[in-house]
Amino acid sequence: MGSLRPPCVLTSPHSPFPTRYSPVQPMANVTLRSVRKTYPGGFEAIKGVDVDVGDGQFCVLVGPSGCGKSTLLRMVAGLETVTGGEIDIGGRVVNGVEPADRDIAMVFQNYALYPHMSVYNNMAYGLRNRGMAEAEIKTRVEEAARVLELSAMLERKPRQLSGGQRQRVAMGRAIVRQPKVFLFDEPLSNLDAKLRIAMRVEIRKLQRRLNTTSIYVTHDQLEAMTLADILVVMNGGQVEQVGNPLDIYEKPATTFVASFIGAPPMNLMSTRPEEIRSQLAGSAAADAGIVGIRPEDFVITDETPAGGLVLPLTVEAIERVGAETFVYGSREQEDQRVAATPGELPPGEVIVRIPGTQAPAIGARIRVAAVRAKLHLFSDDGRTRLKG
Amino acid sequence: MQKQAIFQSKLLPYALVAPQLAIVLIFFYWPALQAMIQSFLLQDAFGLSTSFVWFENYIELFKEPAYFEAILRTFFFSFAIAVSSLSFALLLAVMADKPLRGSMLYRTLLIWPYAVAPPVVGVLWIFMLHPSLGVLSRYLRALGIDWNPLLDGDQAAALIILAAAWKQISYNFLFFLAGLQSIPRSVIEAAAIDGARPMRRFWTVIFPLLSPTIFFLLVVNIVYAFFDTFGIIDTMTRGGPGKSTETLVYKVYTDGLLGGNLGSSAAQSVILMIMVIVLTGIQFRFVERKVTY
Q1: Inter-chain contact A99–B193, Cβ cutoff 8 Å?
Q2: What number does CATH give the domain B64-118+161-288?
Q3: Which of A95, A226, A270, A288 is deepest in the core (most CB within 10 A)?
Q4: Which PANTHER family does the UniProt entry name for this protein (chain B) (predicted)?
C-alpha cells in the first residue's frame, strides 16, 4: 500500500509517525517492452514501443499531436488497455492491474480536480480511499500544501482558485500519495507563457527533491529539453529516438527528430542540387541524401571552411529578439521538399541564428558557411543518420 | 448579464409582448382568478342561488379530516413516485452512460415511455395488473400474493405509484444522462487513480456532481406527482377503493364535478396553486444560486 511507503522529503520532522517508514525507497523503474495499442477498428495508435525509465529518472515523451504520447501515458496509468507487449512498474508487470493498484499518481491537462471538494479534501481523497488515519492525512496534506504554497487556501473550492493554483493542487494531490511513479499529461498547457516557465522549474525542482520516477507528456520541445533526463521523441505511434536531450539535439537519429527538436528548426536540404553536391563530393558525405545544419551553426562569412558547406543567400526577413537575431534567407537554386515534418522550413528557405542585433539588410546577398563537423547527414528517406 | 434592448418607439415593446401576455392572461390568470372568486362563494344544491361567504369554504375544508388525509396521501405519493422514479432512472442512466454497442438504440428506446399519455399509461398497467385480466397478476398469485388492487387500498396505491413512476423514468433518464455526460471523464479517471472503486467513485464523485440535476428533477417530479397523475388515477382506480388513491388534485375533481361542491373545490384549487407557487419559488431560488457543490 502507498500508505506504508517512505517519507521522502514531504513528511515533516514533526510527523507523529516517523518510525513507521522504512528508510529505503523501493526501486520504481518503468519498463515498456514492445508495447502496442490497436483499437477495435484496426487503428494502430502505438506500434511497439520500448522504453526503460530508471528509478528516480524524469522521462519526457514528446511529439506532435496525434503521435500517441498521451495514449502511451494513459496505458502506463491503466486508463487504456494494452493490446500487446508488457508494462513493468517496479519489477511487476501491470498490464491487467487496476489504475488504483499501480501505485502511480497522475496530473491531468485540465487538472481534473474534484469541483465539489475543498483543496484539502482534494488532496486527502486518495489517502482516505486507502484507509489512512485522519491524523496522518492531515500531516501529509499540510506538508504538501506548505511545499506548494497552498496553506492559505486549503478550505477553498477549486473554482475559487486561479489556473496556477489549481495546477499546484493537482500536483499536491499527486505528491501526498507518495507514489512510485508520477505521470504528467501536458500539465502546463493550460497556463499562460510566464506561469508555464515558472511551473516548469517548480516541477523539476520538486521531482529532484522527491526523487520519484516520472513520465511527462508534452508537445512543447522546449519543455521536453529542459525537463528530461531521458527524452523519448515519438511520431506516428513509434519511437523515433530515445536518449539524453542534449545527445538528441546534437545527434538526431532521423530528419523528423532533427526538425522537431530545436527552435528554430534545423535546416534540412537535399544534396541533389549541384550547388550542394559539388561541395560534398569526395567525402563520406557524398552518399547522404539529406544534409542538415542547425541555424546557430551557420556563420555569415566570405571564407570557405575546408570540407564545410557554403550557401549564397538573399536575405528575406530579419527577426531580432534581443540577445540574438534570426536571418531568413532564400537560396538561389530551387530545392525540392525534403520531407514533410512539422516545424520544417519551406523549401529553399534557410534560417541563420546569429548573436546580437547586428544583421544584414533585407534584400542583401550574403554567404553563410558551416564547418564540416556541424553537418548532419541523413539517408535519402530521412530515416537513418549517416556517420560523417 | 442580459443585454438590455433599446427601442426607438415606446409602443413597439408592448406590441411585441402582447401576444404572449394575451395567452397567459386568458388561459392562466383568468381561470385562476375565477377559481379564487369561486372559492369565496357558496352555491345551493340546485345552483339557484349563490352567496358570498368569505373564507367559509376554506374553514370548512380544514375542519374536514378527509382533506388532511388527502394532503398526507399526496405527500406520500409524491415522495414515493419521485424517489422510485429518480433512483431507477439514475440506475438506467449510469448503465447507459457506459460505452456499449448499440447504446444509441438503447437510449432512444428508454425515452419512448415519455411519449405515452398518462391515461394510456394507466390502461397499460391495468391490463397487466388487473386482478382477473392481468398477465402479471397470475404470477403474483402464483407467488402467493393475494393481489387485488380493486379491493385492497395499499395495493391500489402501489399500482398508482408504479405506473406514475414508470412514466416519469424517461424524463429523468434524459436529464441524468446529460448530467452524467457533462462530468469530465478525467475527474472520474483521477478518482480511479486515487484508489476509489466504482461504487465509492459513484457516491463520492459522480453523485455529488449530479446534485444540481437531482435537485431540479426532484422538484419537477414532485410537481408531476401532484398534478399530472390525474389521468393515471382516473383510468386506474378513480380514487378508490374507498379514498385510498384520492390525491389533492383528484379530490378537487370529485368534490367539484362529481360532488357538486364548487366552492370547496375552488378553495382546494387555490391551495394547490399556492403549493405549486412555493415549489417553483424554491426551485428558482436554488437554480439561480446554481445550487451546488
Answers
A1: yes
A2: 1.10.3720.10
A3: A288
A4: BLL4140 PROTEIN, SN-GLYCEROL-3-PHOSPHATE TRANSPORT SYSTEM PERMEASE PROTEIN UGPA
